[in-house]
Amino acid sequence: MSPTVLRKNGFRFYFYSNEHIPIHIHVEKWDRYMKYDLENNHIIENNFKKIEENEVLSIMFKNKEKLIISWKNYFNKKYNYEK
């Protein structure tokens, strides 16, 4: 299972139900993909073209708090995040 957190401009932002820390997000559109570390602010994997990468990062930064809160709410029992 992979809960979708956000859909924007055709990009799907999601995580897997068996994720590990650090807090990170997966992004896909067609056959392109990015994995981004939200805690340490860096790209882990990426095969988007530069223009797409910039669009993904812009969307991500505008929604970073929502993405992190979604992760923490989903994984609260597993990692004991404070509410």
Secondary structure elements and their pairing?
Elements: E1 4-8, E2 11-14, E3 24-29, E4 32-37, E5 42-46, H1 50-62, H2 64-79
Antiparallel strand pairs: 1-2, 2-3, 3-4, 4-5
> What share of residues are in beta strands?
25-35%
Low-confidence stretches: none
Q: Ends: how far apart?
A: 24 Å
Structural class: alpha+beta
Helix and strand run: EEEEEHH
Helix segment count? 2
In short:
With 83 residues, this protein is of the alpha+beta class.
Task: Report on this structure.
By secondary structure, the protein is an alpha+beta fold. It has one domain (4-79). 35% of the residues lie in helices and 31% in strands. It is built from two helices and five strands, in the order E-E-E-E-E-H-H. The chain has helices at 50-62, 64-79, and strands at 4-8, 11-14, 24-29, 32-37, 42-46. It has a five-stranded antiparallel sheet, covered by helices on one side. The longest helix is centred in the last third of the chain and has 16 residues, at 64-79.
Index terms:
35% helix, alpha+beta, 83 residues, five-stranded antiparallel beta sheet
